Amino acid sequence: MSEQAAPVKDTATGEPPRPGRFRRLAAQIAAGPPWVVTVLSILLAMLVGAVLIIASDQEATAAFGYFFARPGDSISASWDAVSTAYQALLRGAIFNPDSASTVTDALRPISETLTEATPLIFGGLAVGLAFRAGLFNIGGQGQLIMGAIATTWVGFTLDAPAVIALPAAILAGLGGGALYGGLVGWLKARTGAHEVIVTIMLNYVAFLLLGYLIGSEAFRDPDNPQPVSKPVNEAARLPHLFGDSLRVNAGLLLALAAVVFAWWLLNRSTLGFQLRTVGANPNAARTAGMSVGYGQTMAMLISGGLMGLVGVSQVLGTANANNALTQQIDAGLGFTAITVALLGRASPVGTVAAALLFGALQAGGREMQAAAGVSIEIVTVIQALIVLFVAAPALVRGIFRLRGEGEGSTGLLAKGWNG
Amino acid sequence: MSDTLTPSAGPAAATAAATDRGHWYVGGAMTLAGLYGLWAFGLGSRTDDGAQATFSWNLVGGQGLQVPDLTVPAAPTAIVLSLVCVAVGLLRIALRLTGRRRVAATTVHLVAFVAAFLVWATAGHSLNFTSVLNATVLAATPLILGALCGVLCERSGVINVAIEGQFLVGAFAAAFFASITDSLWVGLVAGCLGGGLLGAMLAVFANRYLVQQVVLGVVINLFAAGLTGFLYERLMQTNPEYNKTMTFGAIDIPLLSDLPVIGPVLFGQNIVFYLMIVLIAVVQIGLFHTRWGLRTRAVGEHPTAADTVGIRVVGMRYCNVILGGLIAGLGGVWLTIGLNITFNKNMAAGQGFIALAALIFGRWSPLGAVSAALLFGFAGGVSVSLQPLETPVPTAFLSMTPYLATIFAVAGLVGAVRAPAADGIPYTKR
Q1: Given CB atoms, is B235 within the 8 Å cutoff of chain A?
Q2: Binning pLDDT at 50, 70 and 90, where does residue B282 land?
Q3: Where are the alpha helices (DSSP H) in A56-161?
Q4: Residue of A nearest to B403 (CA)
Q5: A39, A303, B149, B228: which sits with the fewest CB atoms below 10 Å from its CB?
Q6: How many Å lie between the alpha carbon of A300 and the closest alpha carbon of chain B?
Q7: Do A416 and B424 touch (CB under 8 A)?
Q8: What is the domain partition of chain B in residue ranges?
Q9: What residues form DSSP beta bridges with B72?
């Protein structure tokens, strides 16, 4: 990606960053600090995670109570707690030597990682695409819920063979998310309403609407005591890719197609050029005769559509045991997607890498909870810290005493609510 | 909004043009709302057969002065109130009201519409209005504290979307430390400090490392949710001794708490509530009548100018963001030991974001934010109180009102909403 090389040169020559240019965020993220900072950030976040595991471990804290009498005890107890947890993390995410008797068993951790990564790829692309157009799509939760509602409704009402039902359900999800996202872009273009504020509010509107729908006549499963929607028809579910015992499903193929689409859109299409121009410099875009409002609306529309696909994979995918809509259908993915896009520096390929990493953390986190009794919530902490450190390279460089290209390279400069 | 140092040309011109048609849009919407009220509340089936709506004003077991119940015939009352709404809408179009009169008209419309709705909802039942108000105040307290935190941060130029996270950490710290020390006061201080710590984190990353502030807020929220969720599962779930139910006793203010309706609601709450009242006054007076407040606003509107006259811009921002964090932490304290509830994962449940909405809806001013928070709290209070009345309105839609109202506000339908000019832009010396 040749155009991403230019900003690197800018920061290297010490040109001061111009404030108020959130629009440059995308380009800046894309250029950003080199991979060293990313790796160190991951290490640092895991380190903080280790401290948390030790601090909340009964044996370790008990041993620290007599640290000065027998320091060896506390150190070994801490080591035990952390190594058990992180080994379980690796076993759950990559390879588990204890249960690898058959090929299927050996592949299971990888399959879990890919399953977890699938919605993150869609979500990361969605947020990243909006970034490139200078917009911050914080409304993933709402858009994916709308997508999930639409896809579920089509999924249980349309009685058709899989060739029709599955594409129809997917398209419905795409459309639901796209309309909900496009509404934000349209409001921004028409009235200047800040997309961050509007998307935050729409998140809760969608969340409450979901709560109402799954308890309503039209959606609720009468056989289920919990407020859960009717399950989606067999025909509309995403099929397994490698046999029924591995959860990895056709959603992954869809996600890879979305990556290719996003790459093509951003780098090869006229609309993508327009989006990037609007993102980089709306005034220049206006001067060149582009409609900034159109660009913003389209960016939010496509971004919302991709978020709708997160909802699709949440409902139709194998991660959902009975393929039904629940109140927790979003599973925080709208916000995790933001961290994925930031870590992937808003580029399609980077997003895949980031989604794989976070998918692995998620899959490993479940094993860690089961095997080592360490709550999976720590994965959220680690993910947040990784992004925080990546966004503040000067901090990471300072901690590791690295001489880097100064502090101007943060890249994440802001625009305010009025911008 | 008192002073505007840098008028922004584009949006300002757009809103000026919009206000011309605005009278038609807003007035029309008000008239339509009134007509809808007439159709749904006044002439609907619920108010048929001369059903009566009874409003009682005394809390169950309440001391002090008692007020007799108010019983009104539902259908005629709702019709009259709806007609008032229609009239106000038409007046708005015909007279092109501005300034104080417009605010008054909007208020009358809102009150009449809500009253018509309540009369309709209560038809054939009885509603304790004092307990609705009490629920309003209880729901509004964290929103007010969160919005005050937002005022301090954003008036000095740092966007704070991390109020939700600050609530969570404050709530956790309050519950945890109050439980292990058996002292509510330790819990209160710990909760504030918890919020303050997240505030410090926000301040450092925003001012020192220049991280984009909305991104930062989102990440801090995730961090806080993960951290408190993790510690909850590791410590509290296995050991309930770390998460006890405890709360401050209510303090009745002599004489005032005997007043009907407002007595128990405003003068019979616990210490956290009174702290909040004090904080409202402190922030409002501090922001507009002290040197500190002037500097805060200057730093948020035009940091370069502030720097030129010798104000330490970044220092002011650190100070205000951390102070804000302490206040939001108090909001977290309210959620657990203020309301006698044990800590639970993600217990803030979006209230931090409603506080942000109140801040924006209140146009970044302390009193505006407080009014917005009360309005949003009222929506919450009503939706709780309506459940036993078996209204056909799903409470989900009532709970949506704060969010929808905010969207309408930022879309310019309720007048221009403008943030402090330098809000969200980190300050660096050239």
Answers
A1: yes
A2: very high
A3: 58-64, 71-93, 103-132, 140-157
A4: A201
A5: A39
A6: 16
A7: yes
A8: 146-372
A9: B53
> In this predicted structure, what is the pLDDT of residue B430?
61
pLDDT above 80 for B409: no
Interface of B with A in 146-175 (CB under 8 A): 157, 159, 161
Contact call for A391 and B399, based on CB within 8 A: no
Residue with tokens 């058990």: A84
Chain B: nearest CA to A86, how far in angstroms? Answer: 15
Is the pLDDT confidence value at A9 over 50?
no
Q: Which of residues 316-355 of B touch A (CB under 8 A)?
A: 345, 350, 353-354
CA distances in angstroms from A29 to A8, A192, A241, A391, B224, listed in the order given = 10, 25, 34, 9, 24
Residue whose pair of structure tokens reads 């090869």 in the numeric block: A268
For residue B18, the chain A residue with the least C-alpha distance is A191
Q: Edge-to-edge strands of the sheet including B70-73?
A: B70-73, B52-56, B126-128
d(C-alpha A274, C-alpha A259), whole Å: 19
| Alpha-carbon span B353 to B168, nearest angstrom | 12
Q: Which residue has the higher pLDDT, A292 or B65?
A: A292
- Tokens 């101007």 belong to residue: A408
Residue of A nearest to B202 (CA): A388
- Record: contact A395-B209, CB cut-off 8 A: yes
CA–CA separation, A220 and A210 (whole Å): 11
β partners of residue B401: none
Helix (H) or strand (E) holding A279: helix A270-280
Instruction: With CB atoms and an 8 Å threshold, state whether A19 touches B425.
Output: yes
What's CA B42's distance to the chain center, in Å? 30
Stretch B338-355: mean pLDDT: 87
| Mean of the per-residue pLDDT values of chain A | 84
Cβ of B223 within 8 Å of Cβ of A205? The answer is no
Residues A233, A174 contacting (CB under 8 angstroms): no
Strand, helix or coil for residue A320: coil
- Give CA–CA dist A74/B167, Å, rounded: 33
Mean of the pLDDT values across residues A75-87? 88
Cα–Cα distance for residue pair B146/A325, rounded to 1 Å: 32
pLDDT surpasses 80 at A361: yes
Mutate to test the interface with A, among B1, B214, B393 (most CBs of A within 10 A): B214
Contact status of B24 with chain A (Cβ, < 8 Å): no
- Contact, A168 vs A154, CB < 8 A? yes
Return the closest-CA partner of residue B161 out of B200, B202, B195, B205. B202
Burial class (CB in 10 A: 0-12, 13-18, 19+), A65: exposed
Task: Please state, rounded to an integer, the average pLDDT across all residues of chain B.
Answer: 83
* Closest CB from B215, B223, B356 relative to A381: B223
Mean pLDDT (whole number) for A42-64? 87
